[in-house]
Write the structure tokens for this entry.
Amino acid sequence: MSTSFDVVVVGGGIHGVGVAQAAAVRGYRVRLLEQSALASGTSSRSSKLVHGGLRYLESGRLGLVRESLKERETLLRIAPELVERRAFYIPIYAQSRRSPPWVTAGLVLYRWLAGREGGQFERVRRSAWGELDGLATRDLKAVFRYNDAQTDDVALTRAVARSAEDFDAEIVLGARFIGAERAGAGYEVRFVRAGRVETCVARTLVNAAGPWAGDVLGRVLPGPPRRAFDLVEGTHIVTKGTLTQGIYYGEAPADGRAVFMMPWHGQILTGTTERLYVGDPALVAPTPTEIAYLQEALARHFPGLTTTVAEAFAGLRVLPHAAQGLNARSRETVLLADAPQARLISVLGGKLTGYRRTAERVMERLAGALPERPARADTARLILPVP
Ligand SMILES: Cc1cc2nc3c(=O)[nH]c(=O)nc-3n(C[C@H](O)[C@H](O)[C@H](O)COP(=O)(O)OP(=O)(O)OC[C@H]3O[C@@H](n4cnc5c(N)ncnc54)[C@H](O)[C@@H]3O)c2cc1C
């Protein structure tokens, strides 16, 4: 087995497999190291939305929203069995923080940013409110309907990994990265597999370890530049019941934050909360307070549904450290390089929706450190296999 690679990727979440695929289709020799199973980190604990992010308009992230909307359309094309367009409903109550004119303005902007595809929206007629899965109508002032998309984050991650393997990327599960040291024109990489330390040589190294990215950076010699970031915990609950019309985008009664309620494998998924997290990323778990917050939001919108929790899970966002509140913080993906001519790139933050574009950017940044190879495919056109 070869021990010399053009690109070694640490982390088998959506970003790691995305980079493995983007590198493999460029004709590079790629190895991906994942300490556990594919999508065992944040990429199995997301809200499963492939979306532009309507709420990011409120913090002025027009570029991010435009790019995410473009990627949404790309993913609908290349993964038609994994990414599906869904109707989204925004109910506005007398107590809601957002007014009907405010939401209309947001949707007009969202439609404009979406360009030709998928930007239609409408105000749902009052006579049709009764068809909305038992949505509470007391104090209801308006309901808006627009389109975005939903996926299965684990299935999407596996599909991208399979596609990378189709182009000869080597994906090694149960392989924990423990260190890398600059050697010649690359890095010597060490990892543990089945209790044994193994090594390989990498021309370039990509740190896609999500919430563990800081730990990985701390194991690279000489120490690369660091960037302060926070881990923000987001919880979801799964409850019994069905939502047949689509995804509901409500506000939590407690503080007006956005909460999604959506159909999920025959049940209902409600999320998400946001709170700063300090500690071992592997130990993140939903707290009773967060569960109660989501139950209250679900009960406010659908009083006829049970709020008994069948399952709850929490994931961690990586957000650049800043003085602003969590909601106002940038959701842009940060690519942190070791030097102007990068050989090591860390992927910090970002969205499931933008994984493909992020992976392309990583490869553009590494291009100067890699030999020219004839490209074998274009990830924007490559249909993903169904895992
Ligand atoms: C609550 C929540 C909801 C979200 N909802 C959405 C959404 O609806 N839509 C959207 O577009 N985005 C959403 N996101 C963002 C999206 O989920 C993340 O940006 C994305 O999943 C991050 O993927 P990643 O590959 O960077 O990290 P991860 O998925 O965490 O992957 C990192 C991997 O690295 C591995 N690893 C760590 N250390 C090592 C090591 N030393 N050796 C080997 N492997 C290692 C881990 O085991 C893990 O599998 C959400 C995020 C959160 C937290």
